[in-house]
Design brief:
about 20% strand; single chain; 8-stranded mixed beta sheet; alpha/beta; 12 strands
C-alpha cells in the first residue's frame, strides 16, 4: 500500500492563560491508502490536537509553536496559508466531529449544510447538488432522505445527526476522513450502526480513515493499525493484532487491563491506572508514563527511550526493551536484595 498521509516529528504547543501547553511532542505516523488507522489514548494525550493540526483547524492565535512535516499525497501542508489549505479541506480531507449538535448549524436546514461544500468544491448547480445530497443521506443510512433534507438539526436524533456529519464529510469524495470520537455521545446500538457505516465506506469507496478514540473495543471492530498516544507522544504503534494481542508498552497493557472483557471465561477484576497524566506545561524529561508505571526504573525518569522495532509492523518506546535492561525476574531479585540490605 502507498502512503496517503505522512506525519513526521509533529510538535504543537498551545497558548493558555497559565503558559505554554506542549500538547503534541514529536509525533510520527503514516496513513496508507484505503486503511483505517486508530489513534488511542486517554483525554488530553494530544489525539484531537494532532487531528486539528492536520486539518489546519487550530486558530492561529492559539498556536505558540508548531513544527514538523505533514505530507498529503506528497504535498507538504505545513506552512501553507489558510486559502491554500482550502483546496484540501473538504475536497481531499474531511473531519467528523464527536458532537453533531455543536458541529451543525442549528439555523440551517440539513440539506443546505450538505450542498454548501458540493457547490463550492465541485462547481455543481444547486439542483444537481441537492440530488447528490439526498443520495448521500441514503448512503449513510438515513430513512426518508428527501424529508430529512428539509429538516433542521434539532428535528433529528443524535444518531441521525452523526450520520449527517458523515454525509457532509463524504460530500466531495475525500481520500481521507478524520473521525474524532464519532461514537462517544451515542448509545451502544447506534455506535454499532455508525461503525458499520464507516466500515462500509472504507470498503466501498476505498476511503482512508483516521479514527480517534479512547475505546479499544471500537479499535478491534474497525481498524487495521493502531497508534497509542500518551502525554503528547506516541508510545506504541502496530497492527491491531500487535496492540491488542501482544501489547508491549506498560501504558498499552494498563489500558487493556482496565477494560472489561466479554470473552473472558472467568471473572477478572478490572485494574485501574493509578495516578494522573503529567503536566504538559512542564512535561518530564523521561518517559511520561514512568510515575504511573509498576515497572519503572531510575533511567525511565532521566530520559525518553528510543524506539524498539519488535517486528516489521510493531514499534514501542520503552526502556524495558533495551538490551541492557535486566529481565523482570532479575529485577525482582535485585529489589529483594536491596530490601534485605535496608532491613539489615
Amino acid at each position: 500500500m502507498s502512503a496517503l498521509l505522512e506525519v513526521k516529528d509533529l510538535t504543537v504547543s498551545l497558548k493558555s492563560h497559565c503558559g505554554e501547553v506542549q500538547a503534541v511532542r514529536g509525533v510520527d505516523f503514516v496513513v496508507n491508502e484505503g486503511e483505517v488507522l486508530a489513534i488511542v489514548g486517554e483525554s488530553g494525550c494530544g489525539k484531537s490536537v494532532t487531528a486539528q493540526t492536520i486539518m489546519g483547524l487550530l486558530p492561529k492565535k492559539l498556536i505558540k509553536r508548531q513544527s514538523g512535516s505533514i505530507r498529503f499525497q506528497g504535498q507538504e501542508l505545513m506552512g501553507l496559508s489558510r486559502s491554500q489549505l482550502r483546496k484540501y479541506k473538504g475536497a481531499q480531507m474531511s473531519m467528523v466531529f464527536q458532537d453533531p449538535m455543536t458541529s451543525l448549524n442549528p439555523t440551517m436546514k440539513i440539506g443546505h449544510q450538505i450542498i454548501e461544500g458540493i457547490v463550492k468544491h465541485q462547481k455543481l448547480s444547486k439542483k444537481v447538488a441537492k440530488q447528490k445530497a439526498i443520495e448521500l443521506l441514503h448512503l449513510v443510512g438515513i430513512p426518508h432522505p428527501e424529508e430529512r433534507y428539509r429538516q433542521y438539526p434539532h428535528e433529528l436524533s443524535g444518531g441521525m445527526r452523526q450520520r449527517v456529519l458523515i454525509a457532509i464529510a463524504l460530500s466531495c469524495h475525500p481520500k481521507l476522513i478524520i473521525a474524532d470520537e464519532p461514537t462517544t455521545a451515542l448509545d451502544v446500538t447506534v455506535q454499532a450502526q455508525i461503525l458499520d457505516i464507516l466500515k462500509d465506506l472504507k470498503t466501498r469507496l476505498k476511503t482512508s480513515i483516521i479514527l480517534i478514540t479512547h475505546d479499544l473495543g471500537v479499535v478491534a471492530e474497525i481498524a487495521q493499525r493502531v497508534i497509542v498516544m500518551y502525554a503528547g507522544k506516541v508510545v506504541e504503534k502496530g497492527t491491531v493484532e500487535d496492540i491488542l494481542e501482544h501489547p508491549n508498552h506498560p501504558y498499552t497493557k494498563a489500558l487493556l487491563s482496565s477494560l472489561p472483557r466479554t470473552d473472558a471465561k472467568e471473572k477478572i477484576r478490572l485494574k485501574p491506572i493509578e495516578g494522573t497524566p503529567p503536566d504538559l506545561y512542564s512535561p518530564p524529561k523521561g518517559c511520561p508514563f514512568a510515575p504511573r508505571c509498576d515497572n519503572a526504573m531510575e533511567i525511565c525518569l532521566q530520559g525518553m527511550p528510543k524506539e524498539t522495532r519488535l517486528s516489521d509492523s510493531h514499534i514501542s518506546h520503552c526502556w524495558l526493551n533495551d538490551e541492557r535492561c535486566p529481565s523482570l525476574k532479575e529485577r525482582l531479585m535485585l529489589l529483594n536484595a536491596e530490601e534485605g540490605r535496608k532491613q539489615a
